[in-house]
Amino acid sequence: MRPRLTLTGLVIATTLTGCTVGPKYRRPASSVPAVFRGADAATATDPASLGDLKWFEVFKDEQLQALIRKALVQNFDLQVAVARVLEAGANLGITRSNQFPQISGGPTLTSNQISEEGSFLLPSRPVPGFTRTRNFTTVLLNLASFEVDIWGRLRSATEASRANLLASDENRKAVITTLVSEVASDYFDLIELDMELEIDRRTLANRQNSLELIKTMQQGGVATMLDVRQGEELVYGAAVTIPSARLQIEQIENQISLLLGESPGPIPRGRSLIDQPQPPPVPPGLPSSLLARRPDIRSAEDTLIAFNANIGVAKAEFFPLISLTGFLGTESSKLLNLFDARTRAWNFVPQISQPIFTGGRLKSNLRLAQAQRQEALVQYQRSIQAAFSDVSSALAQRRETAEIRRQRELLVAAVRDRVSLAYMRYYGGVDTFLNALNADQSLFADELLLAQDRRNELLAVVQLYKALGGGWQ
């Protein structure tokens, strides 16, 4: 009856583990605006969002898609993030195992020989049935020290580990969002530099042709040596930009190679900067949905949950610790009788330990846990407001960069006409070369700025997509 009563007591004690002394987590109230600042009034309350689209539905350049897919497989930062998720999962398993009894078992064979000259003197003559050698065989199931989790300390620790696992997974998603945006941004920078290099070479060729014509005019006495020098100034000004553009292209290619987890090398291109398809005109969506979509916000909340659970762990330290140890098995000096009813043996030791004096350690642990939770709460609230700021800034950037690009296109068209007229007047002998020089320099600079404006318009889409929490799907 004793083993049965002991088992019954163990079951009753275990069923008492239903209470926890820590605070129950409740999501903090957050100030959420009704609409994003800068959103289109016609779609400000539309629940659909650009952030809900998958990244390949936003970036439709086939070569860019291939680069992003490769980065999602080979990027080192993402591999580290995945490893951290696995670490958090293993840590959860270790922490959760403390809630269950740890049972080990196995047979042991002990053989002893008594000394004839030891503490007990043996008879000088052999005694029938007496032997100096003793064999002892044991088969036991050992119950290691098992804590009865009455106050919920172990369950709170498990809750904290589970929240840390979820936070690690959200961090992995945040790394994916950042990786997709970085590859897209660098790719758009690369094809913009390709366009700048094309403008540099075209401008250099045009200026070289103009210089040859000016030299011919100078030999005929129509142009002056000053005109030749000014023409050379234009040629050298265009020539010096070519190696600078090539250098930047190579640096961007190396940067993309690093994101792909590869050695530095050339990056294949798809569509040109002008031919890049624009993403669908999907609105930003409702601000409330941002809390569930942005991985950094969700990670901050999971971290808050973990620190909230740690308060329960710290509070449970104030209460008595109930632990159980024991063993169950058989013991016999004869192997043949090892499993007889007479060889049965068991031991059950319940223990209660109550902290009496710890020098303020328990109170300090509790204050530490509460302070960490307060810090996590502030970080969570800050991440929400930072997300709203990111979206509003990205909306303004997308709107204004599109307007800048449209105005720059008009400016470039006007300057091109001015350059054509200035050269016609100079070759016709009715104007100096200075006006043509100024117009040519303005056109070169404005064409480069137009290429950058087109890239900035694409980058604005990337930033908006990232700010809305897209890319990790």
Question: What is the CATH architecture term of the largest domain?
Answer: Up-down Bundle
Please state how the strands of the largest beta sheet are arranged side by side. 1-2-3-4
- Strand count: 4
CATH superfamily of the largest domain: Outer membrane efflux proteins (OEP)
One letter per element, helices H and strands E, the order comes to HHHHEEHHHHHEEHH
Q: Roughly how much helix do the residues carry, as a percent range? A: 55-70%
Instruction: Summarize the biggest pleated sheet.
Output: 4 strands, antiparallel
In round numbers, the mean pLDDT is: 87
- Total tally of structural domains: 2
Task: Tell me about this structure.
This protein has 473 residues and is α+β, with helices and mostly antiparallel strands. It folds into two domains: 20-99 and 151-319 and 361-467, Up-down Bundle (Outer membrane efflux proteins (OEP)); 101-148 and 320-353, Outer membrane efflux proteins (OEP). The chain is 60% helix and 10% strand. The protein contains eleven helices and four strands. The protein has helices spanning 2-15, 55-58, 62-74, 76-97, 153-219, 225-239, 241-259, 287-293, 295-316, 361-427, 433-467; strands at residues 103-113, 133-147, 321-332, 344-353. A four-stranded antiparallel sheet has the order 1-2-3-4, with helices on one face. α5 (153-219) packs antiparallel against α7 and α9 runs antiparallel to α10. The radius of gyration is 39 Å and the shape is elongated. The two termini are 59 Å apart. The mean pLDDT is 87.
